[in-house]
Specification:
Length: 122
C-alpha cells in the first residue's frame, strides 16, 4: 500500500478524501491539519506522496512546499497541490514553478485524484 499524507486545514475535505482513498484499497492515508506540525507527521508516517492545500493559516502550502524541497529528508517526496482559491501566478510569486507541480482544484473527483496520485508515485 502506498502512503498518502493530506496536509489541509479543511476537516471535511480531509475526512472525505481519506475515506475515498482508503476505500480504493491501494492507499494508507494520514491527515495533518496544521502545516506547522507537518514535519513531525511526515517523519512519523513516511508518506510516499503528500496532498497539500495552499491556503492555510500560519504557513501556506507554497511556503511549506519550499521547505519540503530544502530538507534532505523530504525533498524527494512528491506532492500535489489541492486548492480552491489559488492561481498559477500566485504559485510563481511564492517561488515555485507551477509547471513542476500538479495542481488539482477543489472539489476534486476521486477518480481524477487516484489517477494523479498513481502517476506521481509510479
Amino acid at each position: 500500500m502506498k502512503k498518502v499524507l493530506i496536509i489541509d486545514d479543511e476537516k471535511d475535505f480531509c475526512f472525505f478524501v481519506k475515506k475515498g482513498l482508503e476505500k480504493v484499497g491501494k492507499f494508507s492515508v494520514a491527515v495533518c491539519s496544521n502545516a506547522k506540525e507537518s514535519f513531525k507527521e511526515i517523519t512519523r508516517f513516511q508518506p510516499d506522496l503528500i496532498l497539500l492545500d495552499i491556503l492555510m493559516p500560519e504557513i501556506n502550502g507554497s511556503q511549506l512546499a519550499i521547505e519540503l524541497k530544502k530538507n534532505k529528508e523530504t525533498q524527494n517526496i512528491p506532492f500535489i497541490f489541492v486548492t480552491a482559491l489559488i492561481s498559477y501566478d500566485e504559485i510563481e510569486k511564492a517561488g515555485l514553478n507551477p509547471h513542476d507541480h500538479k495542481i488539482l482544484t477543489k472539489p476534486v473527483r476521486l477518480s481524477e485524484l487516484v489517477t494523479v496520485i498513481n502517476s506521481a508515485i509510479s
